[in-house]
Amino acid sequence: MDLSHIAVQLMAAIVCGWIANMLIPGQIPGKFLGFVLTGLVGVWLGETVYRLLKAQHGLNVPFLSWGYGGVAVVPSIIGCAIIIYIVTTFVRWGHYHR
Predict the structure, then answer these.
(1) In angstroms, how far is CA 58 from the centroid of its own chain?
(2) DSSP string for 75-86
(3) Rounded-to-5 percentages of helix, strand, coil across the chain
(4) pTM for the full predicted model
């Protein structure tokens, strides 16, 4: 993993996090830093689950393998949406129990 791959992954995290935030609107704590961290975790989650499904179950859907710079875009957006949903759910849950 070189510096260019990390830069592409960071940009993909920002874009995928932004798209996922449009799909699942919510208040992410930490403003831009929280947004970037959520995007990075979502990209990691999406790529990891996609690789596991592809290796173990032979998942071979063409649009899931679309990518840029080695980052699968569609699984990354799905991973970011899942992470944003989890984060906003816990934030709302914390506000209800105060």
Answers:
(1) 22
(2) HHHHHHHHHHHH
(3) 80, 5, 20
(4) 0.78
Cα separation, 37 vs 32, in Å, equals 9
Reported as a single tens digit per residue, the pLDDT across 18-67 is 777 777 776 777 777 888 888 889 888 988 998 898 889 888 888 877 87
Please give the Cα distance from 86 to 15 (Å, whole number). 19
Nearest to 72 by CA among 53, 44, 37, 35: 44
**Is 85 exposed, middle or buried (CB count within 10 Å of its CB: 0-12, 13-18, 19+)?**
middle
Beta strands in 1-98 (DSSP E): 67-68, 71-72
Enter the tokens of residue 32. Answer: 């831009």
Instruction: Report which of 1, 13, 69, 23 is spatially closest to residue 45, judged by C-alpha positions.
Output: 13
